[in-house]
Amino acid sequence: MKIGNVQLKNEYIFAPIAGYSDVGFRSLCSKYGAGLTVTEMVSAKGLNFNNPNSEVLLATTKGESPVAVQLFGSDPEQLFKASQNPLLKKFDIIDINMGCPVRKVTSNGEGSALMKNPKFIAELVQATVEGGKRPVTVKLRSGFDLNKPTVVECAVWAQKGGASAVTIHPRFREQFYSGYADWSLIGEVKNAVDIPVIANGDIVDFASAKAVKQVTNCDGIMIARGALGKPYIFAELLGKAYINDVGKLMLKCEFRDDETEYCGCEDDFGKDKVIDIKADILEQIEVLSNFMSERVVANNMKMHLCYFAKNIATPKAVRQSITTVKTLSDLLKVIDEFF
């Protein structure tokens, strides 16, 4: 899949999720084969005013490529200026958030509130394209008002403004994340624009990924909550992970063309290996520790552990244990006990 002049490794993309798409978890998704990763949303205005929190959100690792940054804002000048910020030079793509349903965002006319004025979307995209000089994508919902879809019109205006792709999460703003995603709207957008259309919403495994492609004829698939606690979902979607005869989740070992480099299975060279959830959690902590204080790492990881715990036998015990976690040392004890 190609977005503008950026060639993705494959069609599967890890979504921008506030509080979860941190550099550590994105690194795991990249390791397991995500074709593109996207940062948490970053305020264009905050970036322009040198908000210290922005720099942490913009952290990346060497193995994370290609990678997109997601900006949010409602002022073309702010987006133009933010897209020129030196901190964004390392990003291949700039995505504009036009789907966030949270009141503190929409009350400022940002996020999904932008879908109230489809024509204005073209101005925002054009300003970002001119400032960033790289592909710009837009993430949309079905519409702002319940049962009043504006997504097709918004996508058309995004394309007119110079967008290289659109991502559609077909829920209305008032739905937040409840109910079901109406994939038929993604198909309508696909028929209305000439740029790549990326499907998002209720895609949690190979079966749902296959189904959304059949329904929508989409070009790409964005995985959001379906990846939380299981970054290896990308390996599953790519056919590189499987359940063995004794019920263990395995990662296939594959040689590269020159047959000298290994896919990442350091032990038992040439053999498939068991996916080690505990090792992934510790790897995420190690990456985050390069950019955050121990306290912030501990707080971030408490949220992630709730999702990782869904794949073990005692998720309730994990959730109860992390309520008392205050330090990274406390967190590591919980990890050692349950994972």
Plain-language structure description:
The protein has three domains: 231 residues, TIM Barrel; 35 residues, no CATH class; 62 residues, no CATH class. The longest helix has 15 residues. By secondary structure, the chain is of the alpha/beta class. It starts with a strand and ends with a helix. The chain is built from 14 helices and 13 strands. Helix 7 links the parallel strand 7 and strand 8. The protein has an eight-stranded parallel barrel, surrounded by six helices. Strands 11-12-13 form a three-stranded antiparallel β-sheet. It has a two-stranded antiparallel sheet with strand order 1-2.
Offer a quick outline of the entry:
The protein is α/β, with parallel strands linked by helices and 339 residues long.
List key phrases describing it.
339 residues, single chain, alpha/beta, 13 strands, 3 domains, three-stranded antiparallel β-sheet, eight-stranded parallel barrel, TIM Barrel
Helix percent reads 25-40%
Which stretches of 5+ consecutive residues score pLDDT under 50?
A: 255-262
Give the helix/strand class.
alpha/beta
CATH topology of the largest domain: TIM Barrel
CATH superfamily of the largest domain: Aldolase class I
The first-level CATH class name of the largest domain: Alpha Beta
Number of domains: 3
User: Could you give a short account of the major beta sheet?
Assistant: 8 strands, parallel, barrel
Query: How many runs of DSSP E, i.e. beta strands?
Result: 13
Q: Percent of residues in beta strands?
A: 15-25%
